[in-house]
Automatic annotation (TrEMBL):
It comes from Streptantibioticus ferralitis. It comes from the Bacteria. Residues 21-87 form the DUF6431 domain. This is DUF6431 domain-containing protein.
């Protein structure tokens, strides 16, 4: 899976063989599309069908996923971000689920997963902020690890946008890029 800021620009880059394989760094070529799926966004249902790419050297295939989407999730990153923001503001999973129109079990699972990986998420955010703009590093004690993690990720997303000036406008899509599309399952640090 390759997380991209702009799916249309990535499609053009793929056609011109500018995108590189994350495994071997060789050129990628278009390889059709992934299966269509429907995901829930804050405004309702969205039908998506991401592009696929195949490496010209190692022959591995990759799905080119827009930053607003998460792999293997039926919800957009913006939808999930609203749930995390609600938890940071002190709402429980039942209130958040009711406000979003989502299943309580789904929201509870997201919050449990995010809380269990909050330190990893905070580390990703702090590491990015330090690299991009150390003055933007959050210094206020939020009390809860998830609040620290979300604050660090938001600060990193804002710092990245300020520094580079391009990429997705939506903050949760920028956070998805920082976490490589693994907001609920960050890669091990180290």
């Amino acid at each position: 899976m390759i997380e991209v800021a702009d799916a249309a620009a990535a499609r053009k880059a793929l056609a011109r063989r500018i995108l590189r394989c994350p495994d071997c760094r060789a050129a990628l070529q278009p390889w059709g599309q992934a299966r269509p799926r429907t995901v829930r966004d804050l405004g309702g249902l969205v039908a998506v069908r991401p592009d696929r790419a195949r490496c010209t050297a190692c022959r591995r295939t990759h799905v080119v996923l827009d930053a607003g989407l998460l792999p293997r999730r039926a919800y957009t990153v913006r939808f999930l971000g609203q749930a995390l923001a609600g938890a940071v503001h002190g709402y429980g999973h039942r209130q958040i689920a009711a406000g979003l129109g989502a299943a309580q079990d789904t929201v509870r699972g997201w919050l449990r997963r995010a809380r269990s990986t909050a330190e990893q998420l905070r580390f990703i955010g702090v590491q990015a902020v330090v690299a991009l703009d150390p003055d933007a590093l959050p210094t206020v004690d939020r009390g809860e690890p998830l609040a620290h993690a979300v604050e660090a990720l938001v600060a990193a997303a804002v710092a990245a946008h300020r520094r580079f000036g391009h990429g997705p406008r939506e903050i949760w899509a920028r956070i998805a890029l920082l976490t490589h599309g693994r907001l609920l399952a960050p890669s091990p640090t180290g």
